[in-house]
Amino acid sequence: QVQLAESGGGLVQAGGSLRLSCATSARTFSNYEMGWYRQPPGKDREERELVASIMGIGGSTGYADSVKGRFTVNLDTAKNALYLQMNNRKPEDADIYYCRMETTTTKVGAWGRGTQVVVSS
Predict the structure, then answer these.
(1) pLDDT band at residue 81 using 50, 70 and 90 as cut-offs
(2) What confidence tens digit (pLDDT) does each residue in 84-116 have?
(3) Please, which contacts does 11-15 make with residues 24 or more away whose CB atoms are closer than 8 Å?
């Protein structure tokens, strides 16, 4: 099973920028869809929200309305890593962020353990 490890979380001021990284054990990406999710601290896993996704082949991306124009997802296949660039941070962006990879056919996938982002106003 693919293993994922997020990093880059921390404290950022409102309006500031932060980049999250997700290292993956995968070496090929054409059969996967990858995404960044966020979950409010103390909430259940079922409340995770997909904020950005990217296809392993073709590279098409998708974003939640709440982050469009502020967040950018990209995949670096040479480094086997997924990134989430977050600009113009808002207080409501303060969550635990998780990356996920799942196969495009069976939707079977893996989660990372998460990285927490705190936004100060």
Answers:
(1) very high
(2) 999 999 988 889 999 999 999 998 999 999 999
(3) 11/118, 11/119, 11/120, 12/89, 12/117, 12/118, 12/119, 12/120, 13/89, 13/119, 13/120, 13/121, 14/89, 14/90, 14/91, 14/119, 14/120, 14/121, 15/88, 15/89
